[in-house]
């Protein structure tokens, strides 16, 4: 199907790459994890031993070739080893989101018919046990952290280290089988199965082969010149394709070290200690960092604030140009160097960005202000556009060609095509094999020639040759007067305001647009504190008249900005409301990767949407909420619905398409 | 009825051993005020033993007798089968009895880590000069102590505040740090004076979980005072009920709950 040659030297599987790494740089660090306050390290040689012991132990438990083994836990070396160990014995690792509720887990476990699961701790063990009865053929579970599990029935439950011990004990009996299965792996063997986040409907299992992962990793490593001395910080969910590519694919291809934080709460300080050179984060993470910096700066002394503002303004002016290697006057350069010494350097150090050579953001559009802030500090932050089905990479921005509003040029060996409706198609060695047990979906996504429909609408920017994304194809609709309705475009503009966490725009088939808005509790709460506004709850703050005033001013500014684009000027917001609860994955309003499920939200809050269109000044509503432990409750509120000024569309210029 | 040396296994599979501490006819007076009047009860190895009662019942005084802070005028304390002579609190601590306080008693200016390290004092043999100059036993001891402390930090899930000064922490976390410090002494008996006072429901649930886990993982015997009835009844194996300095009930949570004297003490009863 794909014509690309096998990766060099017969390195056709992750276990084969492991062998190579052991031979070439066995004594170099492969994994670090902070535990008991100290960074514990494992070299490639030690990693191989751990993986082998686990693989033998799993053989001992009876794992057969082709079995699916679920992996549920936070980023820890044990789980990365497990993925490779599972693959080594011919089984398929299926990493899952560890914050999923038991119900969501049941769907994935049942869908792939997982017989085994390797999980983190008691919490995960309990969840799997809860749904276990409904799964046919589920056999054994392995856990890493024994705490609280001592009294559980251990006939089908095993501690990770015990499984390894048993594997080591049975070395002589099983090593031949282990090696035979490992050597059987080909470029087309399944490397991993990852579940899509399910923006639409139930998650689907995406089968990725060794070819997909290794070729994508190789190309991306070459694109960004990643080498074995690089350091990556693994803190994003293991179930997400990006983490698999970065922390397994690229780490094994280049031989760089993967660093795991001590716990979810210590991510920031652990990252500061490691100082990764290759870093990835969704825009939300960058935004949180920036908000924290700004909040802390407001508490600093007047002199420091003055210094900070002055130098940040200078950085904004010349920083991106210096990063891109454009010409900048000697004076400005000197001033920037001075800033680096006193402001930018220490700030980057605090954020853990001192050594970042290549940084990516993806998943959502990033605000230009936000993007420029990091670029101006001299952090090489770039955008990429990818999908699980593409083994991440579709387009990426090359060094020196970075812009806030595009997602870059096609990655190496990726072909791009845009059809009449504006939908983006791609073909590459990273294109997934199939959706597991779902030939219909596979056929509707991937055609016979290997072209995959992204479901995203976009166009190639004339000037830069970069791809620009407008929205999901299915979300792009038409207003009643036939003009284009691209909700994401407007929502992103709203979300670039720190006060606004989420926005949902409605208007498909209607004569005008209305919007739901979620405030950002950190930013707005901080603002309230400064302005002596007392509030007892999220709901109260969200309904505060002064908050509504502020949001209204943002909406009006966005309207003005939208009006500048004649194609989309119909998408201006006529009325809006601020929601009384945060949209939440536990309530099904968002996916686990924090993308809004538009249709679901529209249906769930249809009374509010109707209210906005009916022109009501306020509305009473009751909403069901689900708590983290699965219990349900409800909240009621009276919401104020506000009218917003719209700007007349800019005079229609000659179509510039 | 169990003998002092008997052991049994609870419903949830924990082994409760022989009597480790016995209070015999304790009476404690402050001048003319009788805080504790002729109370006897025992604590078995591995159990969670609660002392409850209305305000002013003498619970904290009882805990202070166990910890050696107060010396009762009458009665004897038996620890591990031997009658305990009059002792200073630090001598009691050396015997393996650690405690937390109702009003948090941490070093506010020190980090969480340093606070917990102070709990290792009784496991430190190096003298002040060795420690000051980092010579002799000092280094090896500190490394060993830190290892124990880190395990406790991991256990109580306070990694993210390891280096934070205690004064900056919210109340619920301070309570957890205090528990950590007590655990650092690797006590055989842990005394908790109102571990959940002033906490919200979630903090209480967390603390309950930790108390159960400590008991389960380390086999630590726990004696606690608590006001929240729901918590006490869920956590403890046996409960002593005090009122006006006297013992009015003693037994499993169920027995205590159905004891008329206890019901009267809590719900009040018409005085003639």
TrEMBL record, chain A:
Keyword tags: ATP-binding, Ligase, Nucleotide-binding
| Gene Ontology CC terms, in alphabetical order | membrane
Gene3D superfamilies named among the record's database cross-references:
N-terminal domain of ligase-like
What is its EC class? ligase
Q: What is its EC number?
A: 6.2.1.3
Q: Which GO terms describe its molecular function?
A: ATP binding; long-chain fatty acid-CoA ligase activity
Which residues belong to any copy of the AMP-dependent synthetase/ligase domain? 19-436
What SUPFAM superfamilies does UniProt report for this protein, alphabetically?
Acetyl-CoA synthetase-like (SSF56801)
Top-level taxonomic group: Bacteria
- Name-wise, this protein is Long-chain-fatty-acid--CoA ligase FadD15
> What lineage does the source organism belong to?
Bacteria, Pseudomonadati, Pseudomonadota, Alphaproteobacteria, Rhodobacterales
UniProtKB/TrEMBL annotation, chain B:
Could you list this entry's UniProt keywords, alphabetically sorted.
Answer: ATP-binding, Hydrolase, Nucleotide-binding, Transport
**GO MF annotations in UniProt:** ATP binding; ATP hydrolysis activity
Q: Does this UniProt record's set of keywords contain Hydrolase?
A: yes
Residues covered by the ABC transporter domain: 21-269
What is the top EC class of this enzyme, as a single word? Answer: hydrolase
Identify the stretch annotated as signal peptide in this record: none
Tell me the SUPFAM superfamilies matching this sequence: P-loop containing nucleoside triphosphate hydrolases (SSF52540)
Identify the Gene3D superfamilies for this entry: P-loop containing nucleotide triphosphate hydrolases (3.40.50.300)
The superkingdom of the source organism is Bacteria
Protein name, per record: Sulfate/thiosulfate import ATP-binding protein CysA
Top-level taxonomy: Bacteria, Pseudomonadati, Pseudomonadota, Alphaproteobacteria, Rhodobacterales
């Amino acid at each position: 199907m794909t014509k690309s040659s096998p990766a060099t030297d017969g390195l056709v599987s992750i276990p084969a790459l492991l062998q190579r790494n052991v031979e070439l740089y066995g004594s170099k660090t492969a994994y670090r994890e902070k535990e008991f306050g100290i960074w514990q390290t494992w070299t490639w040689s030690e990693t191989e031993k751990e993986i082998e012991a686990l693989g033998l132990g799993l053989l001992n438990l009876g794992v057969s070739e082709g079995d699916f083994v679920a992996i549920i836990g936070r980023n820890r070396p044990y789980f990365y080893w497990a993925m490779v160990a599972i693959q080594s014995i011919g089984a398929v690792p299926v990493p899952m989101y560890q914050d999923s509720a038991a119900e969501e887990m049941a769907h994935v476990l049942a869908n792939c018919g997982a017989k085994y699961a390797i999980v983190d701790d008691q919490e995960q063990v309990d969840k799997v046990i809860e749904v276990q009865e409904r799964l046919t053929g589920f056999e054994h579970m392995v856990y890493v952290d024994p705490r609280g599990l001592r009294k559980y029935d251990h006939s089908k439950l095993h501690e990770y280290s015990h499984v390894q011990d048993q594997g080591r004990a049975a070395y002589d009996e099983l090593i031949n089988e282990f090696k035979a299965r490992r050597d059987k792996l080909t470029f087309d063997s399944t490397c991993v199965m990852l579940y899509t986040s399910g923006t639409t409907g139930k998650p689907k299992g995406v089968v990725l082969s060794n070819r997909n992962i290794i070729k994508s990793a190789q190309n991306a490593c070459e694109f960004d010149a990643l080498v074995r001395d690089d350091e990556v910080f693994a803190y994003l969910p293991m179930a997400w394709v990006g983490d698999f590519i970065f922390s397994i694919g690229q780490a094994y291809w280049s031989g760089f070290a993967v660093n795991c934080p001590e716990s979810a709460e210590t991510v920031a300080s652990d990252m500061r200690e490691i100082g990764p050179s290759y870093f990835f984060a969704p825009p939300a993470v960058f935004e949180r960092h920036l908000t924290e910096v700004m909040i802390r700066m407001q508490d600093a002394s007047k002199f420091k604030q003055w210094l900070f503002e002055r130098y940040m303004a200078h950085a904004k002016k010349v920083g991106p140009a210096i990063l891109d290697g454009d010409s900048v006057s000697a004076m400005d350069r000197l001033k920037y160097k001075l800033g680096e010494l006193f402001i930018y350097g220490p700030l980057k150090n605090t954020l853990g960005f001192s050594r970042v050579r290549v940084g990516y953001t993806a998943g959502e559009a990033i605000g230009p202000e936000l993007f420029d802030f990091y670029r101006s500090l001299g952090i090489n932050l770039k955008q990429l556009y990818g999908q699980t089905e593409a083994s991440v990479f579709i387009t990426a921005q090359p060094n020196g060609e970075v812009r806030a509003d595009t997602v870059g040029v096609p990655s190496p060996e990726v072909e791009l095509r845009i059809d009449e409706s504006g939908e983006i198609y791609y073909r590459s060695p990273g294109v997934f094999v199939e959706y597991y047990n779902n030939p219909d979906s596979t056929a509707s996504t991937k055609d016979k020639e290997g072209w995959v429909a992204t479901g995203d609408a976009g166009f190639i920017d004339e000037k830069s040759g970069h791809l620009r994304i407008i929205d999901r194809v299915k979300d792009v609709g038409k207003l009643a007067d036939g003009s284009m309705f691209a909700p994401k475009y407007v929502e992103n503009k709203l979300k670039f305001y720190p006060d606004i966490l989420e926005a949902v725009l409605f208007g498909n088939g209607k004569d005008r647009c209305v919007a739901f808005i979620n405030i950002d509790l950190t930013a707005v709460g901080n603002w309230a504190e400064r302005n002596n506004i007392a509030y007892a709850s999220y709901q109260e703050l969200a309904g505060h008249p002064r908050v509504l005033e502020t949001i209204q001013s943002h909406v009006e500014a966005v309207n003005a900005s939208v009006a500048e684009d004649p194609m989309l000027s119909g998408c201006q917001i006529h009325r809006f409301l601020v929601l009384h609860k945060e949209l939440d994955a536990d309530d099904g309003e968002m996916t686990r990767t924090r993308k809004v499920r538009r249709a679901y939200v529209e249906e769930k809050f249809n009374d509010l949407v109707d209210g906005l269109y009916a022109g009501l000044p306020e509305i009473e509503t009751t909403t069901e909420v689900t708590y983290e432990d699965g219990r349900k409750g409800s909240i009621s509120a009276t919401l104020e619905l506000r009218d917003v000024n719209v700007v007349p569309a800019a005079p229609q210029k000659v179509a510039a398409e | 009825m169990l003998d002092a040396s008997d052991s049994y296994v609870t419903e949830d599979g924990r082994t409760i051993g022989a009597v480790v501490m016995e209070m015999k006819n304790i009476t404690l007076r402050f001048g003319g005020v009788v805080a504790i009047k002729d109370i006897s009860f025992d604590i078995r190895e591995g159990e969670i033993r609660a002392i409850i009662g209305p305000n002013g019942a003498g619970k904290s005084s009882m805990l202070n007798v166990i910890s050696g802070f107060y010396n009762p005028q009458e009665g004897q304390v038996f620890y591990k089968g031997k009658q305990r002579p009059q002792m200073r609190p630090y001598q009691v601590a050396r015997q393996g009895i650690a405690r937390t306080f109702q009003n948090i008693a941490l070093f506010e200016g020190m980090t969480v880590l340093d606070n917990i390290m102070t709990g290792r004092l009784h496991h430190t043999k190096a003298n002040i000069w060795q420690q000051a100059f980092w010579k002799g036993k000092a280094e090896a001891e500190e490394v060993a102590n830190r290892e124990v402390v880190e395990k406790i930090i991991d256990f109580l899930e306070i990694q993210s505040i390891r280096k934070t000064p205690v004064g900056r922490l919210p109340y619920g976390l301070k309570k957890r740090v205090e528990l950590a410090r007590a655990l650092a002494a690797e006590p055989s008996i842990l005394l908790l004076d109102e571990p959940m006072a002033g906490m919200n429901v979630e903090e209480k649930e967390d603390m309950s979980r930790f108390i159960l886990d400590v008991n389960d993982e380390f086999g630590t015997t726990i004696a606690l005072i608590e006001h929240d009835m729901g918590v006490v009844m869920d956590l403890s194996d046996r409960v002593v009920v005090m009122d006006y300095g006297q013992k009015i009930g003693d037994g499993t949570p169920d027995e205590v709950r159905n004891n008329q004297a206890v019901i009267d003490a809590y719900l009040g009863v018409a005085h003639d």
